[in-house]
From TrEMBL:
The active site is at residues 110, 154, 257. It holds the Pfam family Exo_endo_phos. This is Exodeoxyribonuclease III. Its EC number is 3.1.11.2. Belongs to the DNA repair enzymes AP/ExoA family.
Length: 266
């Protein structure tokens, strides 16, 4: 079995003070993908930059320090790594990192969040427009090397109505616009990837992976499912279980996201 977890930590140093370190020590995952690390590896303590027993690859934001940032922790050492996906605008933004292993390529993705009617939304749409062709290219490249592909992370898009509780009031908001939802559909239809969690749990609502810190969103389970493990078909069908590791109480959270953990047969 191979176990993969993905989580937006909402600041790795802050998460470590609230329970991330204990979670990492206890996890049975073979690979952990992190998003929104918000730190240069050189500024992280050693136990976070390169925890004992883990090989790590980081992609920090060199444009806005203390923002974005992705990483991959793995028990096995990657045979190759890659930062970015070849588009100059996003090469230094800390939004994508990739690790190659025998038979498997893993990507950690932090897709921009956006805000309708602003430059942030335009940036998000440019990212989406250039990342989709890369997913097609990556799938072909990996297949030539007899590898499956797994892109984990915070995609910042709820694909279907069952992926967020308040879908009726969010239809014009970033993360659930018709264009974003259609783009997510293209990832699955045109690029040929699979939404692993939905294959195992086709019915909603949820389970959600992100809840606002405001109000009673967490207590009421008023969340969004925006964290995905997106796999090529050969790997997706080997998924045996998928779990959102939701903290028992609001006070036990160490991020506004919860880890999504999937177990795959080899």
């Amino acid at each position: 079995m191979t176990t993969v977890s993905t989580v937006n930590v909402n600041g790795l140093r802050a998460a470590a003070k609230k329970g991330f370190t204990e979670w990492l020590e206890a996890t049975e995952a073979d690979v952990v993908c992190l998003q929104e690390v918000r730190a240069d590896p050189a500024d992280l303590p050693e136990e976070l930059a390169s925890p004992p027993g883990w090989h790590t690859v980081h992609a920090e934001s060199r444009l806005l320090r203390g923002r974005s940032g992705v990483a991959i922790y793995s028990r096995a050492e990657p045979t190759a790594t890659r930062v970015g996906f070849g588009v100059p605008e996003f090469e230094a933004s800390g939004r994508y990192v990739e690790a190659w292993f025998p038979g498997l390529v893993v990507g950690s993705l932090y897709l921009p969040s956006g805000e309708v009617g602003t430059l942030r939304q335009e940036q998000k749409e440019r990212f989406m427009a250039t990342f989709l062709p890369y997913l097609v290219e990556l799938r072909a490249k990996a297949a030539a090397s007899a590898c499956d592909v797994l892109v984990c992370g915070d995609w910042n898009i709820a694909h279907q109505e069952i992926d967020l509780k308040a879908w009726k009031t969010n239809r014009k908001n970033s993360g659930f616009t018709p264009g974003e939802r259609a783009w997510m559909g293209r990832v699955f239809d045109e690029a040929g990837y699979r939404d692993v969690q939905r294959l195992l749990h086709p019915d909603g609502p949820g389970p959600y992976t992100w809840w606002s810190y405001r109000g009673k969103a967490y207590d009421n389970d008023s969340g969004w499912r925006i964290d995905y493990q997106v796999a090529t078909p050969g790997l997706a069908v080997r998924a045996k279980s998928a779990e959102v590791e939701r903290a028992a109480t609001y006070d036990e959270r160490w991020s506004d996201h919860a880890p999504l953990t999937v177990v795959y047969s080899r």
